[in-house]
Amino acid sequence: MAPLGEKLARTCLYTAGILTDTSQVDRVYASIKAGIIDGRYPPGAPLSEPALASAHGMSRTPVREGMSRLWQEGYLDRVQGRGYFVGRVTVQSINDTFDVRRLLEGAAAARAAELATPGEVSLLRELAELPTRDYREGEVANARFHLAIAEAARNTLATELIERCLAQIDRFLSPGASSSQFQTGASQAHLRIAGAIARRDPAAARALMEDHLDCGSSRMKAALLRGEIAGVGVR
What we know:
The chain is mainly α. The chain is about 70% helix and about 5% strand.
């Protein structure tokens, strides 16, 4: 889901005739982004425009535009004269992502406690208790829970920004961190958050969400110190 400002900017460029084939750009953008998030393109790996164009059956122009979008979003690094490389996971990027999530999702949980319908509360409880068999299922269930809260808060922009943050967290973990340590206790934390929303207690919902994210941030930093997250940069 692209940010609203990006959507507006791309619409203007398309109308002006600067971008001529948005469907191809969107397709290659989504494909490369998915490859970065699921670890098929590891941190630091070079990405070749000709190879990607051939693999997707298109010219280099939409590939270049798609890669430019990913560079602007922080998924790629660009080196003058050498092209694009998959962005490295950095301590700063992890801190920044969790800081933004804490602000956005704490506010979203508080707002959801005021606005969520009984059906939305029921969905939150269902998602919190959803059984998962592996890392990927756990990540999907986690994302669905957090996005369901954002949607219950009735803020489309916040939902889109939270979705971007969740994708970044998935990218941080994909290179090799053990998923079990990040999923431990998540269901109980989600149930407590859903309970506060059901009780119409904005302060408790915010505090529980912030505590949940602080716990996730601490565990990820501990994984960094143990060398369990690959492709970590210095900046």
